[in-house]
């Protein structure tokens, strides 16, 4: 399917939005309460083409534009943040193969991943190397016919349930981040182990795990040349940070919509809550921040779509949108008063779900370093 026609892409976005409203919204609270993995939604999302949304048609993907994909992620996140977190973690894995692998690897992994037959994970973070890949301790040592990979990764979304994992490991210990290579490891590879799901504050249906590796894998499972792993990871994270921005906007918009409905209906002192200037000013600030976030994200998405470099713009969007989502969801809860603090409403879940957005795929502090580095170099 070619999706150059904007109306066709809009129809896809509308279809995903309708699905999210009908299927994800009613289930989101139960998923949060029980902490069950969102697997039951993934097959339906795959039928709608979501699991391959980031891939070109050549590799089984939907071949849609970056802006349409952004809108779809936003719609899913506004309905269920946990589901969006699993889908976007899958994108990190398939983006890694698309951007870093050869055609043989792409043909082996991407069509099944696009159909939702397989799920991917992206394993970069380590217990002692959160934001600095140069501190990575996972090693890939050459052995006959391949590599011995040994190490531990931490906070890996989808890790234990993924069919394949993109693993970053040091092949040249003297080269720092320039000595990192990337590999695909199948879930059933001997020597791969996953711990139990971490107990997290939010996104409770999108599980994260500690993974340990003591595996031998064939050379053809390396993504690209040796020592190209860091470059691949950074390209993938440029995309991933825009997906985090989309999640932030989706959740913040859902909170904003609830707040607007609430202040129109809620009566205080014989007047609708929305009639009070203090509430109006809160809503005005929230709407302004959301609109600014959309413009920042749209700019980065348009650069991505054009094939231009967008690292700094992606970092700006991720930084601003994640900080915005924290403010907007908190103010929406405040507007609801005591009701917002109860679990009868999704406000407190929104607040918990967006908290990780300022940490993962590069914390707010790391984004500021990237932005400043771009300005000063």
How would you characterize this protein structure?
It is a single chain. The chain has 377 residues and is an alpha+beta fold. The protein has three domains: 6-119, Acyl-CoA dehydrogenase/oxidase, N-terminal domain (Butyryl-Coa Dehydrogenase, subunit A, domain 1, Orthogonal Bundle); 121-227, Butyryl-CoA Dehydrogenase, subunit A, domain 2 (Beta Barrel), CATH 2.40.110; 231-376, Up-down Bundle (Butyryl-CoA Dehydrogenase, subunit A, domain 3), CATH 1.20.140. Helix content is 54%, strand content 15%. It is built from eleven helices and ten strands. The protein has a four-stranded mixed β-sheet. A four-stranded antiparallel β-sheet has the order 2-3-7-6, with helices on one face. The protein has a two-stranded antiparallel sheet with strand order 9-10. Helix 3 crosses helix 6 (229-265) and helix 4 runs antiparallel to helix 6 (229-265).
């Amino acid at each position: 399917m070619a999706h150059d026609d904007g109306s066709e892409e809009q129809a896809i976005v509308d279809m995903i939005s309708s699905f999210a409203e009908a299927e994800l919204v009613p289930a989101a609270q139960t998923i949060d309460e029980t902490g069950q993995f969102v697997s039951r939604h993934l097959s339906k999302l795959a039928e709608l083409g979501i699991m391959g949304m980031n891939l070109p048609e050549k590799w089984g993907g939907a071949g849609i534009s970056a802006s349409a994909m952004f809108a779809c992620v936003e719609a899913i996140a506004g309905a269920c943040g946990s589901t969006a977190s699993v889908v976007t973690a899958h994108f990190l894995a398939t983006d890694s193969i698309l951007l870093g692998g050869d055609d043989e690897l792409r043909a082996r992994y991407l069509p099944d991943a696009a159909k939702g037959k397989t799920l991917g994970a992206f394993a970069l973070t380590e217990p002692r190397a959160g934001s600095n890949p140069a501190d990575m301790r996972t090693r890939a040592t050459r052995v006959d016919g391949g590599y011995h990979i040994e190490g531990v990764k931490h906070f890996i979304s989808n890790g234990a349930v993924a069919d394949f994992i993109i693993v970053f490991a040091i092949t040249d210990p003297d080269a720092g981040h320039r000595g990192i290579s990337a590999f695909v490891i199948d879930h059933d590879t001997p020597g791969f182990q996953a711990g139990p799901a971490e107990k997290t504050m939010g996104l409770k249906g999108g599980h994260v795990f500690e993974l340990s590796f003591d595996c031998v894998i064939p050379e053809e499972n390396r993504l690209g040349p040796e020592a190209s792993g860091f470059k691949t990871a950074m390209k993938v994270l440029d995309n991933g940070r825009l997906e985090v921005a989309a999640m932030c906007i989706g959740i913040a918009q859902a909170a904003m919509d609830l707040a607007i409905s609430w202040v129109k209906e809620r009566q205080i002192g014989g007047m609708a809550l929305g009639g009070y200037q203090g509430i109006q000013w809160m809503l005005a600030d929230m709407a302004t921040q959301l609109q600014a976030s959309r413009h920042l994200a749209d700019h980065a998405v348009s650069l991505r779509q054009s094939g231009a470099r967008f690292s700094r713009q992606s970092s700006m969007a991720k930084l601003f949108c994640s900080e915005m989502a924290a403010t907007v969801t908190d103010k929406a809860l405040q507007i609801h008063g005591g009701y917002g603090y109860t679990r009868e409403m999704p406000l407190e879940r929104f607040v918990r779900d967006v908290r990780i957005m300022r940490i993962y795929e590069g914390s707010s502090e790391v984004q500021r370093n990237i932005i400043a580095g771009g300005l000063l170099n």
